[in-house]
Design goal:
Elements: H1 10-15, E1 41-42, H2 45-62, E2 65-66, E3 71-72, E4 86-91, E5 98-104, H3 113-126, E6 135-140, H4 147-164
Parallel strand pairs: 5-6
Antiparallel strand pairs: 1-4, 2-3, 4-5
Length: 190
């Protein structure tokens, strides 16, 4: 259950024209790929849809939610009100076992960009058995005012994961047994 959910349902949003359907890729409602994806095999059409559907499931399991909008972060790609925001993906040109994911926030000063990209990284790589890639590399589009420091943080997280082969939680314990749960342990107090 999403503690940030508004009272509207997904079907209400789709019927109202705010969101594209999960089973369609509308290029003009997705951000343009940025420099992190240049020169790599960009996912479009059915390939984008397939990985993005998996992303929705993993983000749901790990609670990667945009608290501003009150929905699973994967839904941002479908939100017609923010056609330049969300994730784009590309298979690494040098290693097909690596997927690159670039997040474009809704604004250049999005205060959640760091939290959302780190949460995304942890969801994709902490549940790597649930998709076809050995590692998903994550970066923030350079339109964000803190993209440089965020890129450094994400690169350090990636290096640590690739070296150790596991994720560390903030207390230094490996996932998934310690602090990185697939399912929430309690209902929110709301």
């Amino acid at each position: 259950m999403n503690p940030f959910a508004r009272s509207r349902s997904d079907s209400d949003d789709t019927a109202g024209g705010y969101f594209d359907d999960w089973d369609e890729f509308v290029a003009e409602h997705n951000p343009d790929p940025g420099p992190f994806l240049e020169g790599h095999d960009l996912l479009t059409g059915d390939d984008h849809i397939a990985f993005h559907e998996r992303t929705r499931e993993l983000f749901e399991r790990r609670g990667v939610y945009d608290v501003t909008f009150g929905y699973n972060l994967a839904k941002l790609n479908l939100d017609r009100r923010h056609p330049d925001a969300g994730y784009r993906y590309a298979v690494d040109a040098d290693d097909a076992s690596v997927l690159r994911a670039e997040f474009t926030p809704t604004t250049p000063f999005c205060p959640q960009a760091g939290t959302l990209t780190k949460g995304s990284f942890r969801a994709w790589n902490g549940l790597a058995d649930d998709h076809e890639y050995e590692v998903v590399r994550v970066r923030v589009h350079p339109m964000h005012y803190q993209s440089g420091p965020l890129e450094s943080t994400l690169a350090e997280l990636e290096d640590s994961f690739c070296e150790a082969g596991t994720l560390e939680d903030p207390e230094g314990q490996s996932s998934p047994e310690h602090g990185l749960l697939d399912e929430p342990t309690r209902e929110p107090p709301i």
